[in-house]
Amino acid sequence: MAAAVIKKFFIASMFMWIAPLAILYGFNHNLLPGSSNLSPHAMTLVSGFVAVISVNIVIAFYIYMAMKEPVDKHEPDPKFLADAKASVSKPTGEASTSSESSKKRE
User: CA-CA distance, 49 to 51, in Å (whole number)?
Assistant: First the structure.
């Protein structure tokens, strides 16, 4: 499961680099239709805008894929929960002494 998540993250990260660079390259080398008719100033603005939009599309797609991930209910450790509830119910002065005593145990 973790390997699939890392793989999706890696692929999305690669597209976040590749898509805008490919768009900027395409505009600067007149590979995209209509880009040769633009002035240099307009070409810079349009290529930058389209590159930013492409990154946002990749992010939105990654969020969509993350939302489709199966959700496994994680049950916290019962000992941890008991210790957390005990530490919350203690007065402030006792909490610092318990942390000192736990450091001594280690």
Answer: 5
Q: Which of 18, 46, 13 lies closest to 32, judged by CA?
A: 46
Per the structure block, which two tokens stand in for 35?
């880009």
**Identity of the residue numbered 51:** A
Helix residue ranges, H only, 29-91: 40-67, 78-89
Q: Residue-wise pLDDT tens for the chain (106 aa)?
A: 678 888 989 999 999 999 999 999 998 888 888 878 888 899 999 999 999 999 999 999 999 998 888 777 677 788 888 888 888 887 776 555 555 555 555 5
Q: Which residue has the tokens 């001594």?
A: 104
**Helix, strand, coil percentages for the chain (3-state, nearest 5):** 80, 0, 20
Give the global pTM: 0.61
